[in-house]
Amino acid sequence: MKNFAHKLILLFLIISTMNFCKKAGEIGYFDQPPPGLKPEKFAPGIICTDEDEQNGIFSPDGKEFYFTKVIKKFEFIPFRIKITDNAYGKAEVCDIYDAYKGGEIFISPNGDKLFFRAIISRNPPNADIFCQIKTEEGWGEAFNIGSPINTAGVEGYPSVSKDGTLYFYAKREDSVGNFDLYCSRYENGKYATPMNLGPGVNTEYNEFNPCISPDGSYIIFNSQDRLGNLGKGQDLYISFRKDDGSWGDAVHMGKDINSPESDYSAIITADGKYIFFSSRRSPDRNADIYWFDAEYVEELKIK
Question: What are the angstrom distances between the C-alpha of 274 and each of 68, 156, 265?
């Protein structure tokens, strides 16, 4: 009887250890332990391979992970991995975008809308933001969200906060430099006239790929040629919203996050815990997806 009791205790300890390991690795993160304050390559061999992978994003419920493979310049193929409580599937080409040549996927914090940028024409350059609505069967038909967001020019990298405000980059008459960052509130079923984010964010240089935090308190974007850039490529910058609603002076996210190669396309998880971004820091300079703990942002805010 004593031996039997010991066996039961041992079995309990084994099961408890297995459960702890599952929580530490978490199936949802492809058995990878959560990162610290320095970027780590995300799911090597599963997501990151010797090909170009970028723009990784989880659905808010954690049941799907989307990313794109860069086939050649301006051509992207969307992939999706489905995740259950006990396992994750293989990366498969998914049916978003419909017939459009799209990229820059973003899923709204409540999971009901998927946004992407589609190339309308290359000469003259024209790209618009499209949307797909979640249905019981999956993502509905893609549609152009239209004016006042989209114009005959280039609009890209949609990002949405919990209150529905849409952030994106574009070149407009009131742009400070070439491409600037804009936002548009969603009110009464339509988007308001976009507003330039102002001098705290936009400069004479290009600002691209805004990623708004779910609560709207900070925004991460990438820029090139600014004073302080670590190389000739893109670097990540962050700006915090001030009490009056305007944006504070953007700061370089530092050598712990950026590299001498291009670092770009940040995505913040819907729960605000982790930040994903794309980088070409690997020796082969192919794009890979990296992630780090969003606690790093709190340290920057204190500084």
Answer: 19, 23, 14
CA pair distance 240, 218, nearest whole angstrom: 4
The per-residue pLDDT for range 90-140, each reduced to its tens digit, is 998 887 765 566 789 999 999 999 999 998 888 999 999 999 999 998 899
Strand ranges across the sheet with 53-58: 53-58, 64-72, 75-82, 92-93
Supply φ then ψ for residue 111, to 5 degrees: 80, 10
Tokens 């960052």, located at residue: 181
Q: What is the rounded CA–CA span in Å between residue 233 and residue 93?
A: 29
Which pTM value belongs to this model? Answer: 0.89
DSSP string, 226-265: -TT-SSSS-EEEEEEB-TTS-BPPPEE--TTT--SS-EEE
Q: Which helix (H) or strand (E) holds 6?
A: helix 2-25
Tokens 């994106």: give the residue. 168
Query: Which two tokens mark 41?
Result: 């390559």
Q: What is the pLDDT of residues 267-303, one digit of tens each?
A: 999 999 999 999 999 988 899 999 999 999 998 888 7
Tell me how far apart the alpha carbons of residues 153 and 144 are, in angstroms, rounded to a whole number.
14
Query: How many of the other CB atoms lie within 10 Å of CB of 120?
Result: 16
Locus of tokens 């170009």: 52
DSSP state of 48: B
pLDDT digits (tens, 9 = 90+) for 181-226: 999 999 999 999 999 999 999 999 999 999 999 999 999 999 988 8
Task: Count Cβ atoms within 10 A of the Cβ of residue 41 and give its class: 0-12 exposed, 13-18 middle, 19 or more buried.
Answer: middle
